Amino acid sequence: MDPFPKEGESAAAGEPSRGAAPSSGVVVQVREKKGPLRAAIPYMPFPVAVICLFLNTFVPGLGTFVSAFTVLCGARTDLPDRHMCCVFWLNIAAALIQILTAIVMVGWIMSIFWGMDMVILASKYSALTPPDSSSL
């Protein structure tokens, strides 16, 4: 059996030619799977998220602690099936983890990344929400 098809055989066999660009039309979608602590980060207004990042940078866990109260004020999270109080306590737990492990720098780094995630989520949230028409 000849490994290279003769001229005209590949078209007859239904195989695409090697010189043609692949246009299979396949769409690949990647979704990030978040754990319960990370999915409990609330979608806050952008200025509040920046304040929480600032607090987390200088006092590890403080911004995360403040963000827990935004959940009680109605901030949305990626955990829609959980009750508001459960999401609140998950954020309090994340803040305590950051505070307790800040001594070995792990909590401080985690706290800064947590604040960065808050700002990223806030920028996505502000891009998704339409501007208020009553201010026009």
UniProtKB/TrEMBL annotation:
<keyword id="KW-0812">Transmembrane</keyword>
<keyword id="KW-0472">Membrane</keyword>
<feature type="transmembrane region" description="Helical">
    <location>
        <begin position="46"/>
        <end position="75"/>
    </location>
</feature>
<feature type="region of interest" description="Disordered">
    <location>
        <begin position="1"/>
        <end position="24"/>
    </location>
</feature>
<protein>
    <submittedName>
        <fullName>STUM protein</fullName>
    </submittedName>
</protein>
<dbReference type="InterPro" id="IPR026673">
    <property type="entry name" value="SPEC3/Stum"/>
</dbReference>
<keyword id="KW-1133">Transmembrane helix</keyword>
<feature type="transmembrane region" description="Helical">
    <location>
        <begin position="87"/>
        <end position="114"/>
    </location>
</feature>
<dbReference type="GO" id="GO:0016020">
    <property type="term" value="C:membrane"/>
</dbReference>
<dbReference type="Pfam" id="PF15795">
    <property type="entry name" value="Spec3"/>
</dbReference>
